[in-house]
Amino acid sequence: MAATLMRSLVKKRVPLQMGRLCYSSSSVATNEVIGRVPKATHEEMLAAVDSCSRAYHAWSETSILARQQIFLRYQQLIKDNIKELAKLITLEQGKTLADAEGDVFRGLQVVEHTCSITSLMLGETLPSITKDMDTYTYRLPIGVCAGIAPFNFPAMIPLWMFPMGMVCGNTYLMKPSERVPGCAMMLAKLLQDAGAPDGTLNIIHGQHDAVNFICDHPAIKAISFVGSNQAGEYIYERGSKNGKRVQSNMGAKNHGVVMPDANKENTLNQLVGAAFGAAGQRCMALSTAILIGEARNWLPELVERAKGLRVNAGDQPGADVGPLISPQAKERVNSLIQSGVDEGAKVLLDGRNVKPNMKCYTEEIFGPVLVVLEADSLDDAIKIVNKNPYGNGTAIFTTNGAAARKYTHEVDVGQVGVNVPIPVPLPMFSFTGSRASFRGDTNFYGKQGIQFYTQIKTVTSQWKAEDATLKSPAVTMPT
Ligand code: NAD
């Protein structure tokens, strides 16, 4: 089904240039090939950017109400196709069907938010800054923008990117992860069905060459990246050097701090869900628990709950946890677990004693592994979290308001949950990971997303009455 769909998209619907067949998209659960997408050649990538550049003038001049209408239709089409999109995600990426629907749903919320563009893109005015003179600003698009996405949210993350960029009047070049290329193609087709003109969105498939091309092409004015630090730091540096705006959302090591006064039942269920859901392949997964004081004794119950999760192919009824993205990812996770054992951690469903200097703590594992540390006090826990270089997300579990307030104020992490394990902000806010989890100065979606995809033009105008005509040249600066 997905293979047929992708082929038909490539051939007929989406304005994509055909190239040599290169990437095989495989079912993650079985490792069978389910489709192929063309790796874009250099000529095809040039053609894709040219297509975005040609479409830019007309699109940026399209009335904002017309752009809003397209995204209103788009959000409805995504809702109508959510099950199909989810099936494709489960097939390509492996997560369970219910979780795949969540993946689409959280992206859909960003699209719904773009439908408020008539408010979001308002400029500012200040009348009468001096006699007969007014100043006002326009928020305007910046040109061709590009998005580079990771494998773990095949719908949500591309939907953080091109809808935000395009609704502001930019045209968009999207490079999905080569490991999950199909979902972005289906999303592009739905946008075309919603009425987006040809050339406003182009998709290229590739990896390093495509990334370098995006970082270097002078027509591309801004890059939104989400993925690992290795790629994200490189893209931030190369893109910025070439004068582009870059926002780079990267890796994480998110800590859940458990106070002994927390609601035990809720906390243990939330921890297990947030550590092992999507096989731990979420940038906001709670991959590290810090148990404080008496909460140390909750470990056996945490283990029991983790044992109860059913691991299966994502499309199987009752599956809680699907497979990792690839055999290589599994090998990497296993080797990080082994490094923990070699360095003295106890493993599997009976252990504790990971120390902050161990590799399994310092590196992002990105798998179904919960690292458990212990601390004597909240102050100690805050020190541990603040010493870790990443700042994507964290959560505190407590029934004590003062402890919660202290934690939210003193912890140096961009997104904090209080009894909320995965505190991803809704799109009227922005996604505000910090420190090693982010490079750039304007975050994804929300007000900051609009800022990222627009530039300001300031107009100062004077309309004098005829009888107020200047009598001589104004050679001095006005005071
Ligand atoms: P990845 O960095 O391997 O791939 C992301 C994109 O970069 C892909 O499109 C890929 O083609 C490209 N790429 C990969 N390696 C590259 C390189 N060396 N040079 C240039 N381009 C390269 O990431 P992934 O494995 O697909 O995704 C998992 C990572 O993404 C994790 O680290 C996770 O924490 C992070 N992530 C972060 C967020 C966030 O919002 N902070 C969200 C989701 C995922």
UniProtKB/TrEMBL annotation:
CDD domains: ALDH_F6_MMSDH. SUPFAM superfamilies: ALDH-like (SSF53720). InterPro entries: Ald_DH/histidinol_DH, Ald_DH_C, Ald_DH_CS_CYS, Ald_DH_N, Aldehyde_DH_dom, MeMal-semiAld_DH. It holds the Pfam family Aldedh. Keywords: NAD, Oxidoreductase. It catalyses: 2-methyl-3-oxopropanoate + NAD(+) + CoA + H2O = propanoyl-CoA + hydrogencarbonate + NADH + H(+); 3-oxopropanoate + NAD(+) + CoA + H2O = hydrogencarbonate + acetyl-CoA + NADH + H(+). Signal peptide: none annotated. It comes from the Eukaryota. Gene3D superfamilies: Aldehyde Dehydrogenase, Chain A, domain 1 (3.40.605.10), Aldehyde Dehydrogenase, Chain A, domain 2 (3.40.309.10). PROSITE patterns: ALDEHYDE_DEHYDR_CYS. Residues 27-459 form the Aldehyde dehydrogenase domain. Belongs to the aldehyde dehydrogenase family. This is methylmalonate-semialdehyde dehydrogenase (CoA acylating).
